[in-house]
Design goal:
There is one protein chain. With 399 residues, the protein is α/β, with parallel strands linked by helices. Helix content is 38%, strand content 29%. The chain folds into 2 domains: 165 residues, Immunoglobulin-like (Sandwich), CATH 2.60.40; 214 residues, 3-Layer(aba) Sandwich (Aminopeptidase), CATH 3.40.630. The chain is built from 11 helices and 16 strands. Helix 4 crosses helix 8 and helix 6 crosses helix 11. The longest helix has 37 residues. The chain starts with a helix and ends with a helix. The N terminus is likely disordered.
């Protein structure tokens, strides 16, 4: 009977994928990211189990909305299971994406591994295989639409040991449990090395500006007794996966990424702060054998807990973004006028990849001649850094 059901499922999958491809054409995978937490000298497996709700995430971005199906799972030894996700009629879009996939296949998460391979059976496409310990890892998945990277599919891996405790906590207690007790923050200086970011008026480069402001923020926070981890200290290329993995392993309370804006219209100006959407993407249970398979009670409990954790972190990210934006605007307006562009929501990859409240600050438009001149000025950079510092301290005070 089981073989019959799997055969029937495969036949339906082939028919559906062929029909989908005929209507939509071939789909390209443009980029792939694996954000995880390191198990090293500072973070033993036991430390992670006791303190980290989230263990990692995989995000795949396509040039159009993909069709994907969960194929019936198999046991892989005494402790492990294998889950399969087929993306029919999907091909790897470019050489850079091939390198990203190789990087994902070469690195394992804690209590899980992932593999992405192009396949020809049961139909041509891309197969994601997840090998995991169900007693230690629970994962969910859903689709999202990123302004930067188009259509995405997100897989998130959670720590079962802590998920078991989540549903017993009130929102207030969950927030307290999720917050780190250490007064440590991660400051991400955007771009760097071969990635120059935006180039603006008066020869201002984004990568140089973000590094200068980030170092100033770190200095001010250190003076206030806050430990700071910089994702880069020099003009060096650091990938998004590497930035987030370092941040997730730093045992920090929050993550702030510093960037500079650019626009075709030179008159565009002002400061804005981004965070993830307050509501998480629509998530579905990844442990179901097929779409028509009812999830187990255990799975339903973990799904609810995972959604609570994700919603809590997104809410905290919004609160962090608000305090940052207010801190920067109030600090600068004490000296001069500035346009407040407010707090905005977006699926930004660097924010999706970290396991703590996170926000991204756009400190101004380097394509605006007047604003670029100000941003190139050391005193103005110090003013922005002080505003970011004020926002961080305000957040930590009320955490």
């Amino acid at each position: 009977m089981k073989r019959y059901l799997i055969g029937l499922f495969t036949l339906l999958l082939l028919c559906g994928s062929s029909l989908y491809a005929a209507n939509n054409g071939p789909i390209k995978l443009n980029s792939a990211f694996h954000h995880r937490i390191n198990n090293g000298q500072k973070n033993t497996a036991e430390d992670i189990i006791n303190n980290s709700f989230e263990l990692g995430s995989i995000t795949l971005y396509f040039d159009q909305k993909p069709l994907f199906n969960a194929i019936p799972q198999r046991n892989a030894g005494a402790k492990y299971k294998q889950a399969y996700f087929l993306f029919p009629q999907v091909a790897i879009g470019n050489n850079k994406c091939k390198q990203m996939i190789q990087h994902i296949n070469d690195q394992s998460g804690l209590f899980y591994t992932v593999s992405l391979q192009e396949v020809k059976k049961p139909t041509q496409g891309l197969m994601l295989t997840i090998n995991y310990e169900p007693e230690k890892v629970h994962f969910v998945f859903g689709q999202l639409h990123s302004m930067q990277r188009k259509k995405g599919v997100l897989f998130k891996f959670y720590n079962v040991a802590l998920l078991k405790k989540v549903n017993k906590l009130s929102p207030t207690l969950l927030r307290t449990a999720y917050a780190k007790k250490k007064r440590a923050v991660v400051i991400d200086c955007g771009h760097g090395g071969v990635d120059c970011g935006a180039s603006g008026c008066h020869q201002v480069q984004e990568k140089q500006l973000t590094l200068s402001i980030g170092k100033r923020v770190a200095h001010l926070l250190n003076k206030s007794g806050v430990s700071v981890y910089l994702t880069r200290h020099e003009d060096k290329t650091v990938g998004l996966d590497e930035r987030t993995t370092r941040a997730n392993s730093a045992d920090a309370a929050l993550f702030v990424s510093i960037h500079a804006n650019a626009a075709v219209r030179q008159a565009a100006s002002g400061i804005e702060t981004f965070c993830l959407y307050r509501l998480p993407p629509e998530i579905a249970a990844a442990l179901a054998l097929a779409k028509n398979t009812a999830p187990s009670k255990r799975q339903q409990i973990f799904d609810i807990a995972a959604k609570k954790v994700l919603s809590n972190r997104h809410d905290e990210g919004f609160r962090l973004a608000q305090t940052l934006q207010n801190g920067i605007i109030e600090t600068i307006r004490a000296k001069q006028q500035i346009i407040d562009r407010g707090v905005k929501h977006e699926w930004l990859q660097v924010l999706l990849g970290v396991h703590m409240p996170a926000a991204l600050v756009e400190v101004g438009f380097i394509t605006n001649p007047h604003e670029a001149r100000s941003l190139a000025n050391a005193q103005y950079q110090e003013l922005i850094a002080q505003g970011i510092c004020n926002g961080i301290l305000s957040y930590l005070k009320n955490a």
